[in-house]
Amino acid sequence: MKQRIKDLIGELRSRSVFRATVAYCVVTWMLLQVADVTFDRLPIPEGSMTVLIILAVIGLPCTIVLAWAYEITLRGVVRHEQANGRSSRLAFLPFVVVLVAVTAAVGSGLYYLSLRIWQPEPQAIAVLPLTNLSNSQDTEYFSDGLTQEIRSLIVRLDEFRVVSLSSTYQLKDTALDYRTIAKRLDVDVILHGSVNRAQDRVRITAELIDGDDGTQLWSETFDSELANLFSIQERIARKVAAALDIVVPVSVERRLAHLGTQNVEAYDLYLRGTDYLRKPKDIANLSTARTYIRQAIAIDPQFGKAYAAMCQSHLSLYELERDSDQFAQAERACYRALTRDSAASDMRIALGQLYYTSGQYDESLREFEQAAAVNSKSPDAQIGMAQSLIKLNREAEAEASLQRAIQLDSSYYGGFNAMGNFLLANGRFAEAARYYRDFADRSEDNATAFNNLGAAYYLAGNLSAAAEAWDKSLAIKPSRSAFSNTGTMYFYLGDYAKAADRFARGSNYAPRDHRLWGNLADTYYYTDGMRHVADVIYKQAIEFAEDRTSINPSDMDTVAMLAHFYARTGWADKARELSEAAQVGAPDDMYVQYYNALVYAHLGDTDKALDRLKRAIELDYQKELLKLDPGLGSLWEDDRFKRLVSKN
Predict the structure, then answer these.
(1) How many CB atoms lie within 10 A of CB 528?
(2) Cα 206 from Cα 131, distance rounded (Å)
C-alpha cells in the first residue's frame, strides 16, 4: 500500500501535477484580488464575483486533469507519453514568474483603467428631520439641529450622495411612506429617527430604511447623558457606514472625531443660532441667529463651525442691508473659522462666498475647489465653482459645474435655481424658465422660485405669465426682489405711481440696496413735478452704490448703474468716466451695455448710445423693453434705433 502511494506521488511529480496546481492557485488568487478591487468600478452585472469564484473552484480539478494528461514543452503542449524522454520541459519557476508578472500587469492595468473610465454611482441617502418627542416645542431647534449635524457627519464619510437639507425639510412630519419618499428624493436608503431631550439626558432612536422595499436595515436607541451627545452622533454615522458595508478610512476617522467643540452649552447655543439661519433670510431672523452664535463663541472661542455660521449670518445681512460693516465682520468670522478647522468643506464654502462677494474670483474659485476636494458629493461646492467661473468668463466650465451639481442631488432646488440664473444671464430665457419651474416643483411655496420664474417670463416678453408668477411670489412671501420686479414691470407700462409704490415697499426689505433706490429715482424722474425728489433719491442711490463698489470694485453692473445715477444728477464727466470703466471691465455684460446706453442717451451722445444698444441686443437684451424705456425716448424717432429694435 505504501509503495502504491509512493508510486502515485512519483507519477504526479513526473507529470508536473503539483507544479500546475501551485501555479493555478497562485494565479487564481491574484485574479480574484484584482477582481475584488475592479469589479465594483466596472459596468459588470451584480453577482459577477460569485460566478468568478465558482469558475475558479471548477477550474482546479480541470487543471489537475490537464496537467496529468499534457506537458508544456519547448515544442508546445504535447501528451505526457509523447513528451516523456523526448523533449525538454519548460522550466517550472520561469513559467510561474511569467504568469504572475502577466497577471499583475493586466490586473493593475484594469484597476487603473477602471478608475479613469468608470466610477460607480455612490449610494444615495436622505437624512430626514428627526421627530421631536420632547414635551416642549421649544426644543424643536434641538432635533432639527441634530439632524443637520448627523447629516454633516455622514457627508464627511465621503462615500454617499447625501440629499440636501432643504429637500428633506420639505418632508418634515410628512405622512408619505418610506418607499414614496425614496422615489421622490431619488435615494437608496433613508435615515430617520426621533429625539427626546429631558433636562440633562437625551434619548435618540435612529433607523436605516431600504428605499426599494421599505425594510429596516438597522435600528438602535441611544439613551445617555447630554454630555455624551457628541459620541452618539459619531456612533450613528459609523453604524450607518457599517450597515451599508462601508469601510471608514483612517483620514475619515479623524474627520468624524473632530466635531468642533466638546462643550454642550456652546453646542446648544450654536444649534439655536443655526435654527434661525435656516429660517427665511430677514433681518430679524439673522440678527437673532447672530446673537446665539456669538454666545456660543464666547463660551468656546475655538468652535470653528460657530465662526463659519457667524460668517454666513453677516454675509446674509450684508446682502440685505448692503452695510459695509456687516461685510467686515463676515470677513473676520470667516478667517477665524478657517484657523480653527481648515479642512472642513463648510469652512471653505463660507470663505469662497466671502471672496466671491468681494470680487476676488480667483480666490473664491480656489476655495470652492478645495471644498469639492474635501467633499466630492457637495452640490454647493459645484455651484460656488460655477459662479466664480462665470465671473472669470469661463462659461462652458461653469455650465458643466452646474450640471454636475444637479447630478449630485437632483432633489436639491439650489442647483436648478443656479442653472436658471446662469441661463437667464446668457439670454436663454425659455431654458431658464424650465429650470425655475423645476426649482418651484422641488421647493413648495418658495417665493424666490416664482419670483425668478416671473423674471424669465418677463425677459422672454410674456408679461402676463410674468405677472402671474410674481403675484404668486408676493402671496407666498413679500420680498425685495419681487417688489423690485413688479415695480419694473409697471415702470415699463408707464404706470409710475404703482412702480414707485413697489420700489418703495421693496426698499423696506433692503434699506441700503442701491438698485431699488435708483429705480425709485428713475420713476420719480418721469413723474410730473417730481424731478427734485428724484435728484435727492439719486444721491442716496449713489452713496449706497459707492459703498458696494468699495467692497467689490469688480462689480461692473454697479459701476454702470453709478454712471447712470451721476448722469441724471448732472455729473457728466464722472458719468462718462464710470461708463467707460464698466465698458472695459465687462464688455459682454448686457446690463452694462444697457446702462451705458442710458448714460449716453441722457448726455446727448446718440452715436455712442446706439452703439451700446446694438451690443446689448447682441447679448440678448429684449428689444421690446427698449421700445418701452423712457430713458431711451430721445432715440425712438431715430431710424437707426428703429432698425435695431425691429423684429427682423
Answers:
(1) 6
(2) 10
This prediction has a pTM of 0.63
Q: Give CA separation, 267 vs 93, 99, 325, 395, 422, in Å.
A: 65, 59, 27, 41, 38
| pLDDT score recorded for residue 348 | 85
- Residue 92 confidence (pLDDT): 47
Measured between alpha carbons, how far is 648 from 641 in angstroms, rounded to an integer?
A: 13
pLDDT score for 317: 86
Residues of the chain with pLDDT under 50: 74, 86-93, 95-96, 115-118
Q: Where would I find the H helices in 300-428?
A: 304-321, 324-340, 345-357, 361-374, 379-391, 395-408, 413-425
Measure Cα distances from 77 to 478, 489, 559, 586 in Å. 86, 87, 83, 75
Residue closest to 151 by CA, chosen among 163, 141, 143: 163
Three-state SS for 402-460 is HHHHHHHCCCCHHHHHHHHHHHHHCCCHHHHHHHHHHHHHHCCCCHHHHHHHHHHHHHC
pLDDT in tens, 154-174: 877 777 788 887 778 777 777
Least Cα distance to 307 among 341, 282, 279, 268 occurs for 341
Domain boundaries, the chain: 2-117, 123-259
Residue 128, φ and ψ in degrees, nearest 5: -75, 150
**What pLDDT, on the 0 to 100 scale, is given for residue 489?**
86
Q: Which residues have CB under 8 Å from 508's CB, separation 6+?
A: none
Phi-psi region of 322 (alpha: psi -120 to 50; beta: other; left: phi over 0): left
CATH assignment, 123-259? 3.40.50.10070
What is the pLDDT at residue 281? 74
State how far the Cα of 13 lies from the Cα of 38, in Å rounded to an integer: 36
Could you please report the per-residue DSSP string of 41-64? Answer: GTT--TTHHHHHHHHHHHHHHHHH
Judge whether 406 and 419 are in contact, CB under 8 Å.
yes
- Distance of alpha carbon 565 from alpha carbon 519, whole angstroms: 10
**Cell triple for 498:** 404703482
Q: Which DSSP state fits 90?
A: P
Give the whole-angstrom CA distance, residue 60 versus residue 164: 51
**DSSP sequence for 609-628:** HHHHHHHHHHTT--HHHHHH
pLDDT computed for residue 37 by the predictor: 59
Within 10 A of 213 (CB to CB), how many other CB atoms are there?
Answer: 9
Helices (H), 118-246: 140-157, 165-168, 178-185, 229-243
